[in-house]
Design goal:
Helix content is 35%, strand content 21%. It has 27 helices and 35 strands. Strands 10, 11, 12, 13, 14, 15 and 16 form a seven-stranded mixed β-sheet that branches. A four-stranded parallel β-sheet has the order 2-1-24-25, with helices on one face. It has a four-stranded antiparallel β-sheet with strand order 6-5-9-17. Helix 8 packs across helix 9 and helix 19 crosses helix 22. The longest helix has 23 residues. The structure holds zinc ion (ZN).
Amino acid sequence: MNTALIPPYTPSSLEADWQKTWFDNNVFEAHVNPEKQPFYVLEMLPYPSGQLHMGHVRNYTLGDVLARFKRAQGFNVMHPMGWDSFGLPAENAAIKRGIHPGTWTLENIAEMKAVMKKFGWSYDWSKEVTTCLPSYYGHQQALFLDFFAKGLVYKKEALVNWDPIDQTVLANEQVVDGKGWRSGAPVERKLLSQWFLKITHYADALLDDLTTLPGWPDRVKTMQVNWIGKSQGMKFDFTVQDEAGAALDPLTVFSTRPDTLYGATFCAVAPEHPLAKKAAETSPEIAAFIAEASRMGTAQEIIDRAEKKGALTPYVAIHPLTGDKLPIFVANFVLMTYGTGAIMAVPAHDERDHAFATKYNLPITPVVSLPEGHDITAAPYTGDGEVVNSPLFNGKQVDEAIATAIAKAEAEGWGEGQTQYRLRDWGVGRQRYWGCPIPFIHCPDCGVVPVPRDQLPVKLPEDCAFDGAGNPLDKHPTWKHVDCPSCGAKAERETDTMDTFMDSSWYFLRYLCPEADEPLDKTAMDYWMKGGVNQYIGGIEHAVLHLLYSRFFVKALRDMGKLPCGEPFAALLCQGMLIGNSYQKADGTYVYPSQVVWKDGKAFEKDTGEALTVLAAEKISKSKNNGDSPDELLARYGADTLRLFMLFTAPPERDLEWSEQAIDGAWRFLGRVWTLAHKVAAADALQSAPNEALNRKIHQTILRVTKDIERFHYNTMVAACMELMNDLNRAAEEGLSDTVKFGAETLVRLLNPAVPHITEHLWQVLGHTDPLYAAPWPVADEAAAQEDEITLVVQVNGKVRGKLVVPADISAEDALAMAKALDEVQPWIEGKALKKELYVPGRLVTLAVA
Ligand SMILES: [Zn+2]
């Protein structure tokens, strides 16, 4: 066939047609079917900012390849999508532009969904979940009441960041340089009654069950281990005296290093500690220091970074072993919410204590033997070693000294061994409008009363004023005023809404029963969640919060009899980032990569010819313009080319560097597949002489691609298809044959999960009337895939000494005999005693001689 007669590849119309066919025929709709094995593929749901970015495109394409592959393999595949649609940006848009958060959010969802549909991802949109709709959050309120009934929800006083101008609580990330991000007012730490979920009840289970997750990346598991932060140590009391020598309440501290007890040279308490408050009563300096420290807010990172400062109290702590009097400071680096809010400071062996002791000229006493040449006045020593300067522990190793200290304290009654966790209970209340209302009512007589279930959902009122000051729910004229469901007295609704991480802790369960009257339908849970979500895909930035909260939710729901599994996600893939060079003009603005032309290794703006500064690759972001928008790229290349580029350019876990050349490469490859399929289809007659080598290559490619998809080696999967394409083209030049046609058909089938639109089309071009989405995954003929001959490497004492070409089915005996007879091998074994000989089938022969 004259290639001039081949129709041009025009993805836009072809892709739209196939998307319509798939969705008109509900091809991706999944239902409980006990006859078929379920497979649940899940990608993290997006926040509907209104902008789909290429990071999303990569995430969803990775999932789609697996979903389509598993479907072709005969699994009943669940592949849903939804919207994590509560949160602050919508409320900010309301304040800034006077548009209702709900309107803003739903418009964004519509916009993003329209673009998403153009990528042909095989989502079952009938399962779509939108977390800001009462049809979702009403069930979340029901679950919240279930958690409450199980004792997993409680209210207590906690420190929060308080914006005194806006009269609202701020999240840690809303505190910028100690000031409220909106008002600019210095933030204060304040004790407020807050809602908590008792995640610490599951601290040990969350830690121990990580070992049951071999399908998770080690680095994510390590981050969770550190976040939970289980440590063994000792909780003990210092006797405290005031300046007159009178005894005050003892000071309780926790230490993971009681072996360093003799190295303690001072104690420190948090600004909110009762002892600090007592000192402030008589000392204006201490009161002023506490006020200053409270302006740091509650974010651990900020406190860690800040200069260590303190104020000396008039009290002393009596060392339980030596009887020495240690000074007590109020210090800005001690947190009331961690441990007991007080510490014993061992400056010789702790970074923070060392910095503080240096600043205030306090003694630094080493009690672990220092490495040769270590200057303890310059830096602490935090490593292991033998205990010194400690009458009770001298000569012992750290572990042994810890055990001795605990035994002594327990025997004398001033302390005890204790396990401590870094993990805190989860504060879930937010003083904001755009979130799920917490379903409780405050009655002056009955206290906190749950909203009766038949009154759920507690819906957000539509008519709120968004002026940015305080919580709109609290200021609404009528919404919070209700009668107590228990006694009928005048009462008030809770005006806090839930942290949006609550919404994302169970969305993957609601996908399975989006229409159910109960939050979770038992039949659906038992079928789809037996072993959890089979494959979860998303960013590493969610390694702790979202992935830990979801694990907690699933464990709690399992213990309530609502779920068959104790872990939400059996396997987790964290995809790498998308990075790209950015191109900057002289005025500091950025130019999109598509607007850049290169001349003699220098970059210029296409339209103006202005020379551009090329900045090193970094994460693709809107502010840097360093990646073109998905919409614009779709119009230029079509979905299949972009999908292929994402899959081929880097392995999924690695960062993917933006490259127009690589996108062009993907486009050209699809063009070659297009041309070959059309040539084969148009041939008048095909030669029937068998081509064994090509046939073997085809079956080998089926094996490779199948294996590669299963282990997420998508880039080598595409590479295998490209290799086969080359072989097919070479064979086609010698004449179109049945084998070439079989090869072209197989190539189209293997590429289908990656580039579903063009392959559906070419499958029809090749004469098939049934759609490819209904076709099973190709199965290799293992015998045909066998090589006739293989090359074996021969090693003597670990060094390669020769190579051997042998029949593929050679026996071990023959392989060893032929290896020993090789001319190149002979000199190395001649006259020596053979200690070991081994044939590794298909690969090598190893010989060991004395
Ligand atoms: Zn009441």
